Amino acid sequence: MSSPGARRRPVILCVEDEDALRRDIADELAEAGYEVIQARDGEDAFARLERAPADLILCDISMPGLNGYDLLQKVRAGGLGHAETPFVFLSALADPRQIVDGKRLGADDYLVKPINYDLLLATLDARLRQIKRIRSARTDAANAAAASSLGLTPAEIRIATSLTRGKTLAQIAVELGISRTTVAFHMRNIFNKTGTSRQGELIALLLRHGTS
């Protein structure tokens, strides 16, 4: 059993109609530290997404029934909260037209079979880091706006935003190039302005304002 503070493993939805290949991909991803959901075709994949979210979708293009293109369109328009989920295509055909078609539909990347697993892992890692940066920047902007609405100064906003990202006061001091004493001074002002007395209470207040 994992500890409460254990880091969550990214979840990859692997959609591939060739059973042996799908299992091989799943084994490689699991060994690399990912949690893998396997789906045998587009319909199966969409049904699984309705039950549980995925951090990235790795999908074959040519499949019976709902193919990769169809699944991508359905996922993006399906209201499942997957408009931003990275979508990486797999195909046995290195046809530039497939790449163009996939990009136009909203695919983020394209890998050709036979699979180079080093390239596969590097691609997934890059796409997951990219979406994490985008979401982190959006969250920081929302939290900064929330802090500003509470009457905090620019310096206080930077400190408050860093707290919502899980930074300690010591880390904030190093990050901003100021002393711990200066951070403590700003924290007293922040508590006074927000009517809070603890960091957890302050963070909860900022997150509420940032999502309202």
What does this structure look like?
It is a single chain. The protein is built from nine helices and five strands. The chain has two domains: 11-115, Rossmann fold, CATH 3.40.50.2300; 137-211, Winged helix-like DNA-binding domain superfamily/Winged helix DNA-binding domain (Arc Repressor Mutant, subunit A). The protein has a five-stranded parallel beta sheet with strand order 2-1-3-4-5, with helices on both faces. The protein has helices at residues 19-31, 42-51, 68-77, 96-105, 117-149, 154-164, 169-176, 180-194, 199-211, and strands at 11-15, 35-39, 56-60, 87-91, 109-112. The protein is 58% helix and 11% strand. The chain is α/β, with parallel strands linked by helices and 212 residues long.
CATH architecture of the largest domain: 3-Layer(aba) Sandwich
Strand content: 5-15%
Looking at the structure, the CATH topology of the largest domain is Rossmann fold
Helix/sheet category:
alpha/beta
The overall number of domains is 2
The H-and-E topology, N to C, reads as: EHEHEHEHEHHHHH
Q: Could you report the average pLDDT, rounded to the nearest whole number?
A: 84
Overall number of strands: 5
Helix content: 55-70%
